[in-house]
Amino acid sequence: MTISFAPVPPFDFAHTLRFIGAFAPGEGEQQTTSGTLTRALRVNGQTVVCRVTGSGTPDTPAIACALTAAAPLTAETVAAVWDRVGFWLSLNDDLHLLYEGAQTDAAFLPVVRQWYGYHQVKFLTPFENACWAVLATRAPLTASRAMKDRFVARYGDALTVAGATHAAFPAPADLAAATTADLVGILDNARKADYLYAVIQAWQEVDETWLRGGPYDDVERWLRGIRGIGAWSASFVLVRGLGRMERIAPDDALRRSLARVYGYPFSDAEFARTAEQYGDMQGYWAHYLRIAT
């Protein structure tokens, strides 16, 4: 079956594909062509392969998503897929405040023009984002990817469509019986296994709706309360897993992006002033800076 979306304009699906093609943490998890994006996801205990295509123009965009599963999909599951795909691709994000702020920011305006219509591509779920934060902290990318691949092979699922096999990252419910010992055997790293187990346990009962829209300070506090999730990881999940753009803190990578775009290093005070210019879209400002450099 196929479900349709009307993204909030401007939206340019070409930028979605461009970003995903360069997103190292998701390498190998989705397939892209010149006009399609295909990925598997776990919803309500089923694995669903979604083939996303875009049409129209940035100011009149349209998205269609063809769904394939091994068994018939209920209306409830289709609705859950619709919500997940729309949230993953940030189809409902309104970029106008970001673009209005850029009109008086001469250094940033070329970035906006280059990426006009790009809506942030999040991690598919905030749970996957939190797991990746644990696996990637203080580890080379190749080692982190290898641990993630082994984790998905053990607890995820896969579906073959048209000769291509698509692996789905496990949902929290798929991991209810996982133990720390199991994870040590998969990751070959006791500390990361302990932290990953803490993330899994935290996600067994949390309401994602609350994570998406609850008071920012409360959600951040909840994330920081998970063993192994520090300040950087919490900020990472808030922006890249939950689309919480209302705050951003400068890490070393963002400071380097600022220096490249603006031509000089920002002081803390200047960072705060410029971020405030973008208000609740300051996380988008920072995200655009990162992808432009």
Structure description:
The chain is an alpha+beta fold and 293 residues long. It folds into 3 domains: 2-114, TATA-Binding Protein; 126-240, Hypothetical protein, domain 2 (Endonuclease III, domain 1, Orthogonal Bundle), CATH 1.10.340; 252-292, no CATH class. The chain contains 14 helices and 7 strands. It has a 5-stranded antiparallel beta sheet. A two-stranded antiparallel ribbon has the order 6-7. The model has no long low-confidence stretch (mean pLDDT 96).
Which descriptors would you attach to this protein?
293 residues; alpha+beta; TATA-Binding Protein; Endonuclease III, domain 1; 3 domains; five-stranded antiparallel sheet; 14 helices; 7 strands
Summarize it.
48% of the residues lie in helices and 16% in strands. The protein is of the alpha+beta class and 293 residues long.
Given as residue ranges, the uncertain stretches (5+ residues, pLDDT < 50) are none
What CATH architecture of the largest domain do you see? Answer: Orthogonal Bundle
How much β-strand is present in the residues? 15-25%
- Reading off the top of the CATH hierarchy, the class of the largest domain is best stated as Mainly Alpha
**Major sheet, described briefly?**
5 strands, antiparallel
The total strand number stands at 7
- Provide the number of structural domains: 3
Structural class: alpha+beta
Name the helix and strand elements from N-terminus to C-terminus, one letter apiece: EHEEEEHHHHHEEHHHHHHHH
What sort of overall outline do the alpha carbons produce when their principal axes are compared? globular
